[in-house]
Amino acid sequence: MLKLFFKGGIKIKDKISIILPIFNVGSHLRRGINSLINQSIGVENLEIIMVNDCSTDGSGEIIDEYAEKYPSCKAIHLEKNTGAANGPRNIGIENSTGDYIMFLDPDDNYVSDTCETLYNTVIENNAEIAFARFRRIFTYEEKVQKSYSPYLDNLEEIYPDETLEEPNLLNVSNFIWSNALEPLLYGEDIVKTYNRKKPVDVVKINNIREEPDLLKIPPSVWARIYKRELIMDNNIRFQKYICGDDMAFTVESLLKAEGIVFLNDYFAYDYYIRDLPDDKSITNNVNVKFLADLMDSYIYSAEISKSYGEEIVNVTVNPHLMFWANTWKNASMDKDENKLLLKKLKKLQSVHDKGLKTKLLISSIIKMLETSIFVKR
């Protein structure tokens, strides 16, 4: 089908649905919604679906205000709290009518031309997914990290006014991260189509087998645009995890997509790490449910990846296991909670049974849990 696109927010033939799961983010909500209202592509080309998951802080009134003011905004109020973002996201998908689907967590924001850039990219390349880098903004530490990519980039030249730190998921010294932990966490590069010795601006592939390392990139559903048919025809939905639903959704969509484009030198999104004691996001409140759901998402991702080969399974799960272990180490779990986590980890071991490095990594984490359970008897 012929698609017409005019820059500058004039007219596009397609409509883009953007889904926002909303729960008690009133103090941050306007910034996120305003970043959509002010998109360069033009708000009239957007369908902004705001799904209120029984907020008690006035968020519901705020989205009603936007829905009344802007025809592009649609407010949905759930009668029962679903407990996590997966519920509102799935309800948003079911209520969407756009030709393309995007997501925004309402306490973050798009940059001014995110929709225009990603839409242009997916159309020009006849792709089913286009995605980009994001800035990880630490509100407490007042620093900015660029998101992880397996490819060298030119971001410091393209954004000369930014002070960007390298990705560092475990909060250790940059020397230890770069020379020891990053190679262990992400493994060796699987060079298929694009080499790793010079900067890469854009990665274009027909399917994930051509460049499996794209699975190592953080599962940032909100820095991506999806063709509607990819989501609907394959019945891709968010799994019922408090944390990890985005990983399962990202893995499944990348495995099934025909036409994938990654913009390595473009920031599409500002992701705020709400880490102040009185202002924490749900993903910064670590408890046994958080860790159990993460492990369930790893199991799900490993299971749906198995038919794509050992190489795909390894890069799907391995990069996340050390992060999980480090998060567990810094949390406080009792004996029964550790037993629950150990049971889930052994299930992952039974599914993810290929590759020496994988076996060693899972076995070492299992040993950590078993030791903790024994000590706390």
What do these coordinates show?
There is one protein chain. This protein has 377 residues and is an alpha/beta fold. The protein has two domains: 5-284, Spore Coat Polysaccharide Biosynthesis Protein SpsA, Chain A (Alpha-Beta Complex), CATH 3.90.550.10; 291-375, no CATH class. It is built from twelve helices and 14 strands. It is globular.
CATH fold annotation of the largest domain: Spore Coat Polysaccharide Biosynthesis Protein SpsA, Chain A
Q: What would you call the structural class?
A: alpha/beta
The amount of beta strand, in percent, is 15-25%
Number of helices: 12
Q: What is the number of domains?
A: 2
What's the CATH class of the largest domain, please? Answer: Alpha Beta
Low-confidence spans: pLDDT under 50, at least 5 residues? 1-9
Largest sheet: 10 strands, mixed
Radius of gyration: 20 Å
SS elements, strand count = 14
The oligomerization state is single chain
Would you list the SSEs in sequence order as H and E?
Answer: EEEHEHEHEEHEEHHEEHHEEEHHHH
Q: What's the CATH architecture name of the largest domain?
A: Alpha-Beta Complex
Principal-axes shape call: globular
Tell me roughly what share of residues is in helical segments. 40-55%
The averaged pLDDT comes out at: 88
- Termini separation: 65 Å
